[in-house]
Amino acid sequence: MVQELLGAAVAAGCAGLVYLAMAARVVKQYERGVLFRLGRVSGDARPPGLTLIIPIVDRLQKINMQIVTLPIPAQEGITRDNVTVRVDAVVYFRVVDAESALVKVEDYKFAVSQMAQTSLRSIIGKSELDDLLSNREKLNEGLELMIDSPAVGWGIQVDRVEIKDVSLPDTMKRSMARQAEADRERRARIINADAELQASKKLAEAAQQMSDQPTALQLRLLQTVMAVAAEKNSTLVLPIPVELLHFLEKGPQQLPASNGDGGQRTG
User: Fold this and answer.
1) Does the model's pTM come out above 0.85?
2) Among 33, 65, 67, 60, CA closest to 49
3) pLDDT value at position 168?
4) What is d(CA 104, CA 106) in angstroms, rounded to the nearest whole number?
């Protein structure tokens, strides 16, 4: 009799352990468990830790609540200014309602991926090339809004959307390179012309100052001689005053005139 009781107790204990092993579930810290009882959602999502279910009757589905990084494949489209481009992006989202993400959509990751691709093609068609290249923050915000609007009903929150790369045709790259080079050359010419204008104004002021003060010209000549003499070279600089050149120009003209006057007096 005692042996039968011991055997029954052992059997009951084994059955209890098997039942506990079948009923026990562990939900990780970054997960939430949605319990289906006979096909219907039962209660709220199970929190992290050890939870028990009824074997065969209940089924516990775990949902990852971490932020998911979803790359969007490169989408090819034509911008509003008729330029063919290929754009790829990345979406960061997370599940905020485990029950909705599991019940309202079949595969929430695939749904978000398809919505992101469709929204990206729509953004390409509505934008110009300059916006894709230089105004990405505004496009990221618009793309995030387009993806987040339907995702809210699925229990998903889109945290961030970033456009990673914009690929252009080779012909467009060469055209943009020529345009940028021409623009840089234009700016360089404008800067050189402005420098020449400023230098000419300063030289004109200096010439006016030297004409008012002749000694300033002599001092400038002496400074030039000293600068040349400081260098170890064989160049010899002899500054000639401008007044001497004027005298030499006027000398031959005055000489014939004086000879003519003397002849008349002799006669």
Assistant:
1) no
2) 33
3) 82
4) 7
